[in-house]
Amino acid sequence: MTGATSTRSAPTRGAIAALAALAITALSAALVLALLTVQPDGSIFNPGPAVTYGLPAVKVVVDLAAAATIGVLVVAAFCVPVGLRSWNRLLDAAPWCSACWLVASCIAAVMTSISLTGPVEANMLGPSLAQFFTQIAVGQGWFATILMTATISVVAFAARGQAGVAAAAILAFAALVPLALQGHAAGAGNHVTATVALWLHVAGAAVWVGGLAAVVYVATVDGRTFVALVRRYSAIALAGLCAVTISGLAGALVRLSDPAQLLTTDYGRLLSVKVVALLLLVAFGWAQRTYVIRRFGSMDAPALRRRLAFGSLALWELVVMGVAMGTGATLSRTETPGGQILLATKAEQLTGDRLPLAPGIARLMDAWVFDAAAVLVVVLGFGSYLYGAIAARRSGSWPRSRMVAAIGCAVVIVFAFCSLPGAYATFSFAAYTTLLLLGGVLSAILVVAAQPIRLLQTVVRLRGDGSLGTREWTSWVLGSRAMAVPLRTPWLSACALVVLLGTVFLSPWLGWAVQDPVGRTLTTVLVFGVTTLFAASLLRTLGEGQRLLAQAVGIAMAVVLAVGLLAVVVAFVPGGILPAWYGVTLPALGVTPALDQLIAAVLLWAIAAIAVFVLLLVLGQRVVEARPESPRPERA
């Protein structure tokens, strides 16, 4: 695929200067807002109505600008043909949406500082803001958001092809992480689960709301691709709906202890408003698919009638979405029904989570957490795979062994993140080791065994209008130079996997992965990705002769040996693994750190060996499938 060039003739330096002027204007407006609170006696008064009511309003603007940025980039990436007028218009709109995100973030950051600091001398305004942005966690989050949105503005302006759009979209989703860390997940139990759920909630809403706004914008610019545009956005909206619903359910389960609190508390009533808004949006989405796509999707239908049908429903959807986002901004400043959770023990104060019951076999039945990310991956990933596999079996044949691998992968992910390992991962090194090896290594090998890429190529047709769908993006990624080297050199991907595991378990990285939601998520994703490359690189050797097949088996066994040596090192680390952390959490559970460390080492080698054994089974099955069948003698 080749990148498209824009028809815009404005120089890059002029755009960067304009973005810099916007940033300066935003900071100036924020400082003016702060100075307006200075009283004649030289002090800053306590937050009044301007901050109390203005901060939620500005946060709504931040959310809307973030949603517009992400929606424009997602629609450009998946719905619009490359190089057409609508594509160029979307790429022209992306940097200005991110610039509005930047301006609103600057103002919201200063208003947040005013709401937290209280009375401050006028000559201490600058140092107070500097301290807020550098030493306070909320201020550091806002500062990171400001830097990332400024970067998105520059990247989105320079993006003229697929690589630039992908980079800008990834940065936009990453910029939502500080917003999630600032949200109302910090005071909830199971901080990691609540924070990840909040990020998914914000990201799903941004894709849903911003995508709809971008579709409306494109429909007004170019009506030739209206039918295909609405149909493709419908699939994106379904993914956003699943993300919002699952993450919202996870957040409600963490913060509400009784369903009656939905009606008896302020937090519950605001949450009920969001639930009603979600149900209305589901009804609007069903109406879009039923009336707009099916009845007016034919090009024989009058264009004006199609646009009126879509526009009326889209307008109501945007209104309801705005109400939901405004309610969410107020909800983030509303105290949860139980208030701040009282963390009595030292282990709870260290981790920020409630202390679970003592571990044991019985915990396999009652130690459950609702991990929104894991459930969303299973619902979207396994659901899409199952739908495609059924279609493939109807049109031809799809081996049952691949279906078994997909089902096994879904079961492993749910067990790793929603059962005992996920519930104890913050408190126990053995539990976190189990979570990482099951969710990052074994599940990756099962995914490769299920062959979702081949299923995608079998079921989904290539688009002929120049737009980029899931199959086109997958082909572009797999055909890139960055993927070619590890896929063609199994020993390199094997070394990368062993080195990565050693770095995670024997360096300060482990503390970041255990204690921080971002660290845990990125570590799992990285281990999953490297393991996928390792397994896929071994499978590629099947078509290259028996000699390379024997070499692949040898590499797999070498990985088992290397992980075994790593497990021995982990078992006898001098002073123990993270003594300042596990030395507090494990005694609170009635477990000695030395025993937990030994169990973790055994599980590290055992799960890795099981994963490699599964990979060898897959290699053997591929050899049998590739072997030509001998002709059977005819019966007399």
Automatic annotation (TrEMBL):
This is Putative copper resistance protein D. One of its GO terms (cellular component) is plasma membrane. Residues 228-331 form the Copper resistance protein D domain. It is found in: Cell membrane. Keywords: Cell membrane, Membrane, Transmembrane, Transmembrane helix. It comes from the Bacteria. Its main location: membrane. One of its GO terms (biological process) is copper ion transport. It is a multi-pass membrane protein. The chain crosses the membrane at residues 64-84, 96-116, 136-158, 165-186, 198-221, 233-255, 267-287, 308-329, 367-392, 404-424, 430-453, 491-510, 522-542, 554-578, 598-619.
